[in-house]
Amino acid sequence: MKSFLFSSILIALLASVGCTTKFDINAPEKDITVVYGLLNQADSVQYIKITKAFLGESSAYDMAQDPALSSWGDEITVTVTEIGNLNRTFPLQKTYISNKDSGIFYSPNQEVYMFKSIPPLNAKNTYKINIKNKNTEIVTTATTAMVYDFTIKDPMPGSPQIGFVSSNGTYNATGEAKWISSKNSKIFEPLFRFHYREVDKATLDTTGDKYVDWNLNSVKASSTDGNEELIASYNGESFYRTIQAKIPVNTAVDRIIGNVDFIISAGGDDLSIYIDLNSTSGSIIQERPSYTNIATNPPNANASAIGIFSCRFTKKYSFKLSPYSVTKLINGEYTSQLGFK
Q1: What is the SS3 assignment for 170?
Q2: Is residue 96 part of a domain?
Q3: Are residue 200 and residue 329 in the same domain, yes or no?
Q4: Which helix (H) or strand (E) holds 313?
């Protein structure tokens, strides 16, 4: 499944999409729809997580392990409507995926809603989700624009190699990733992904692709108008420190060096606000304002909605490691024990 998440910060944000709880014993009972969805015109299949809040007398941790408590079952119908040149309507179907990490909520299987976006979604259009409760007739809605394509300047697309080490063997200390923002884009998450394979020395069996992600700092555009040059700085030494930290020493295998991808994901303004307000506060005052762009339509005293329905767009370019960078990976102080060849 294409990730819901928009790079590292979004992975942290949506780690709990399995279900949502609401435990206010003094509040009157009402239906609360919880939505997490990020549309991406580069994906041929779109996934949206739709659950309901639940209330009960048992332990919240115990109830979070029961998928039935957060599922709407067959009570809802879901569509996404395109507002623009084609005005298509996509009915969503319930499906199950099996790659949710373990945690407070049930795993690894989870219930999501999906639709195939063929032909692809159009960045010039807007999209509206409609979630109708068949029993109460209450409708939950949200609308999002789409992130336009953006231009990466550095590392330069089409270059055969990328290097984190200079010709004299020292780490590059002033690396910069550069790109030009696009319309409707607000927050960007750049990362380098290092690919490798492992060969068992005894059997000569080779694993499939493995990789390590080196996340750079997120960057925000000053507006969603686009055409703004943005920069994420990095130090070449951190590339090797990250590999050392994420790949364990294993003397039973040799490791084959693969390509390095530069991947950058852009998110819309609503997503940027949502991330800001749901990130861990550095203050001793942990109360933060809530943000959602999901609402019941029209407003209803017996129902409410929370979550985020927004957009993202991801680009990727692949490079070979420069010879100096390969030498440092094989013989350097951080990675020489990892068996790279």
Answers
A1: coil
A2: yes
A3: yes
A4: strand 303-321
Same domain, 133 and 122: yes
pTM higher than 0.90, yes or no?
Answer: no
C-alpha to C-alpha distance for 65 and 107, rounded to whole angstroms: 8
List the 175-180 sheet strands across, edge first.
151-154, 175-180, 229-234
Mapping DSSP onto H, E and C, the string for 240-298 reads HHHHHHHCCCCCCEEEEEEEEEEEEEEECHHHHHHHHHHCCCCCCCCCCCCCCCCEECC
- 289-303 pLDDT, tens per residue? 678 999 998 788 788
Number of domains in the chain: 2
What are the backbone dihedrals phi and psi of residue 242, each rounded to the nearest 5 degrees, phi first? -65, -45
Cα atoms found within 13 Å of the Cα of residue 124, Cβ hemisphere only: 4
Q: Which segments in the chain show pLDDT lower than 70?
A: 1-29, 54-68, 99-108, 280-289
Residue-number span of the structural domain to which 298 is assigned: 7-148+268-312
pLDDT of residue 316: 96
Asked if residue 14 and residue 105 are part of one domain, the reply reads yes
Asked if residue 2 is part of any domain, the answer here is no
Helix H, strand E, coil C: the string for 173-237 is: CCEEEEEECCCCCCEEEEEEEEEEEEEECCCCCECCCEEEEEECCCEECCCCCCCCEEEEEECHH
Same structural domain, 89 and 209: no
Shared-domain flag, residues 201 and 328: yes
